[in-house]
Design goal:
The chain has helices at 4-19, 21-39. It is mainly alpha-helical. The longest helix is centred in the C-terminal third of the chain and has 19 residues, at 21-39. The radius of gyration is 13 Å and the shape is flat.
């Protein structure tokens, strides 16, 4: 994928993998909680 958007999406993913699974889980849960709050 040579898409600029694809690269932009891959960069954060690499950062998250570098941070570690534990932090990724915390961030994911935070995002889900935020998403649910915004939907409500």
């Amino acid at each position: 994928m040579a898409d600029p958007d694809g690269k932009d999406l891959n960069a954060p993913v690499r950062v998250l993998h570098g941070v570690g699974p534990k932090m990724v889980r915390i961030l994911t849960e935070a995002l889900h909680a935020r998403g649910l709050a915004l939907r409500d």
